[in-house]
Amino acid sequence: MFPAAATFACPQPPVSEGPVEIVPGVHWIGAFDPNLRSFDTLMKTANGTSYNAYVVRGSAGVAVIDTVDETCSDAFFARLEAVARYDEISVLVLNHLESDHSGALAELLRRAPQAHVHVSPRGLQILRTLLKDAFGLYRISPVTTGHSVSLGDRSLHFLTTPNVHWPDTQCTWLDQDRIIFTCDLFGSHYCDERLFDDLVGDFRFSFEHYFDRIMRPFRSSVAAALDLIEPLAPAVIAPSHGPILRANPGDYLRHYRRLSSPRFGFGAGTDKTLAILYISAHGATAELAQAIRDGAAEEPGVRVSLFDLDRGELHPFVDLIEEVDGIALGTPTINGDAVRAVWELLAKLVDIETKGKLGAAFGSYGWSGEAVRQVEARLQGLKMRLPEPGLRVKLEPTAADLAEARAFGRRLAAHLTGRAPPREIDLADLAAR
Amino acid sequence: MEKATLTFTDVSITVNVPPGTRIIEMSEKVGSGITYGCREGECGTCMTHVIEGAEHLSEPTALEQRVLAENLAGKDDRLACQCRVLSGAVKVRPG
């Protein structure tokens, strides 16, 4: 059982431990939260986490990069005060505005109102919401790749790296010291006060688990961010959670590149891939699945595969769907609903990138047949495109139903290859969809 | 009444629509990957790339202009929840 208070209060800010020097003039001023056991309800955090924030001192200014969760503000401010006065802070960089990094923001701005805030353009709307009426009191500038701010003998350069994992995310590069501040990218929920990757315990599991739960749904955005970061060859990767990576930063870059690359780097060639996954109560939906498969297989350049959801493990199916170009999901309607195995699969798809894939639903039903439309709504929620209205058949499919299922499969395959004939419809036709 | 058509290239469908129709009203019905988030012009989720017929769309409001700029939108991008098809033929895909 998890400690009840752990989620709500940073238990023992180890203020006495003070800031941690990364290189002269650059300090970690974050906070440890060793008792956190659930993050964002997304993942368990078996040994807690840290909220990493940083101070960079230059000859003509001091920058603070990110803050911490509000529950850990005391530790953050104590460490900040140990390395800088509030009236010295000339720059505040907000790489990501989720509450675990912006929890001390409003108070920091009250103490250092002269700080010039640098945030990504997409961060502005969240910043307005966070600061409310105080938004207009401060100097706030949106920054993108190519923008920089001088601290005298040091300067910070901004990299626009959206959707890793919020739209607002950005990275900040300190070129004099070759330190990249990546916010959630390269993070781990791993709490160890020794802080550096060459000193802490074995955090590899946490590093990879963090990618799987936080970054995997944004795999292509991670790859785009790596395109900007890799050429910099950073000496230190300073994320916003977990260990600071200084021993072999190139290893982490290469591992992230692997994790963000297609899982199956072999096989299908240039063919488009369509996976048909179904579950069948009495065989009718299975018959439809087979007919759809047969029809789709007639389309050149499409590889079609057929799977019985009831006879496979969930996670491999998720891996499969991550890699294919399209899915057709078959379910009967039981008690006016799609069946549990289908919902479990659909719920897991939030862990992968599904935007733009082709989706379709089909199934047999006895009375009302709600399941197909329910599945379609979920697929649309996953930002898939659904070019064909779902295929619903009452009870056992007839020969005509099976012929229509084959045609349905052919049309889905044609949409994958780009050979689907254009259609023109009126509003009245849409009412029937 | 003047006619208007709206083509969603990602699902190969053209819909004959009444002038004044918002793109998001049609995109969900035809199964396009242009989907809504907040539906209030704030989040940028429904970003849409206009392939043809931008001149047939309503002018962006101040809100839409701001959200497009903050989302680093290209010159041919619009918010499906905000802009309306006024006439003619418009062709779009998810942005």
UniProtKB/TrEMBL annotation, chain A:
It comes from the Bacteria. Pfam families: Flavodoxin_1 (PF00258), ODP (PF19583). One of its GO terms (molecular function) is oxidoreductase activity. Signal peptide: none annotated. Its cofactor is FMN. InterPro entries: Flavodoxin/NO_synth (IPR008254), Flavodoxin_CS (IPR001226), Flavoprotein-like_sf (IPR029039), Metallo-B-lactamas (IPR001279), ODP_dom (IPR045761), RibonucZ/Hydroxyglut_hydro (IPR036866), Rubredoxin-O_OxRdtase (IPR016440). Gene3D superfamilies: 3.40.50.360, Ribonuclease Z/Hydroxyacylglutathione hydrolase-like (3.60.15.10). Keywords: Flavoprotein, FMN. Residues 274-413 form the Flavodoxin-like domain. In the N-terminal section; belongs to the zinc metallo-hydrolase group 3 family. This is Flavorubredoxin. It comes from Cereibacter ovatus.
UniProtKB/TrEMBL annotation, chain B:
Residues 2-95 form the 2Fe-2S ferredoxin-type domain. It comes from the Bacteria. CDD domains: fer2. InterPro entries: 2Fe-2S_ferredoxin-like_sf (IPR036010), 2Fe-2S_ferredoxin-type (IPR001041), 2Fe2S_fd_BS (IPR006058), Beta-grasp_dom_sf (IPR012675). This is Ferredoxin. It comes from Cereibacter ovatus. GO terms for molecular function: 2 iron, 2 sulfur cluster binding. The lineage of its organism: Bacteria, Pseudomonadati, Pseudomonadota, Alphaproteobacteria, Rhodobacterales.
